[in-house]
């Protein structure tokens, strides 16, 4: 998706590959496995420090779990990168069979945008801190919950925007990266 929008991308597999990056994407998948692999590969602490230092970061689904300040129902050996003052619950919307698609309304920087969203074993954002901007929310079973949030140079979604072909969320991330690079966000 970022390549479609003209961004140059690189896979990061070593701490040295973090040098010179303007932003990092933490993908969906299994958050515990990703956190353990980051630790074993020596990326956990350098990535945590880079994000704390202002590196723009975008997490989708499992990436949201990794960026959260606190995780409910996580494993004791699961690591957090921090960056977002949110509390999340892993698989909060249910297991694989409860995965779903819907259309979300954007707010804040995405005001007036309809966003196609795919939720696959998605985390629930249980609460957001005072410095967190809610960019989209979902009303499910009568409960309104944030599903796309941003705090400073960190953004995360409970859903997978890369699966719909919709570029609005990724374009917003690239705008955030440009603002961080220009020193006007951070």
Written account of the structure:
The protein has 186 residues and is of the alpha/beta class. The chain has one domain (15-182): Rossmann fold (3-Layer(aba) Sandwich). Helix content is 22%, strand content 32%. It has helices at 31-40, 44-52, 62-67, 168-182, and strands at residues 23-26, 56-60, 68-72, 84-89, 100-106, 114-119, 124-128, 133-140, 143-151, 154-157. It has a seven-stranded mixed sheet with strand order 1-2-10-9-8-5-6. Strands 3-4-7 form a three-stranded mixed sheet. The chain is globular and about 45 Å long. The mean pLDDT is 91.
Helix tally equals 4
**Biggest pleated-sheet summary:** 7 strands, mixed
Cα-based radius of gyration, to the nearest Å: 15 Å
Strand proportion, as a percent range, falls in: 25-35%
**Separation of termini?**
24 Å
What is the average per-residue confidence, as pLDDT, rounded to a whole number?
A: 91
CATH topology: Rossmann fold
Shape designation: globular
The domain count comes to: 1
- Strand arrangement in the largest pleated sheet: 1-2-10-9-8-5-6
Number of E-state strands = 10
Q: What's the CATH superfamily, by name?
A: Class I glutamine amidotransferase (GATase) domain
Derived structural class: alpha/beta
- Return the string of H and E elements: EHHEHEEEEEEEEH
Specify the CATH architecture: 3-Layer(aba) Sandwich
Share of helical residues? 10-25%
- The stretches of 5 or more residues where confidence is low (pLDDT under 50) are none
CATH C-level category: Alpha Beta
């Amino acid at each position: 998706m970022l390549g479609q929008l003209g961004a140059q991308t690189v896979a990061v597999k070593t701490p040295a590959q973090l040098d010179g990056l303007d932003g990092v994407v933490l993908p969906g998948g299994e958050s515990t496995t990703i956190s353990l692999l980051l630790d074993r590969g020596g990326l956990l602490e350098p990535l945590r420090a880079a994000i704390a230092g202002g590196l723009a970061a975008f997490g989708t689904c499992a990436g949201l779990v990794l960026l959260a300040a606190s995780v409910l129902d996580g494993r004791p050996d699961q690591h957090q990168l921090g960056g977002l003052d949110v509390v999340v619950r892993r698989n909060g919307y249910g297991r694989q069979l409860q995965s779903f698609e819907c259309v979300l309304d954007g707010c804040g920087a995405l005001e007036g945008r309809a966003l196609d969203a795919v939720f696959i074993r998605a985390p629930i954002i249980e609460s957001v801190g005072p410095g967190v901007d809610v960019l989209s929310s979902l009303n499910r079973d009568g409960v309104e919950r944030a599903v796309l949030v941003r705090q400073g140079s960190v953004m995360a979604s409970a859903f997978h925007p890369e699966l719909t072909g919709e570029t609005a969320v990724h374009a917003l991330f690239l705008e955030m990266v440009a603002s961080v690079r220009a020193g006007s966000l951070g």
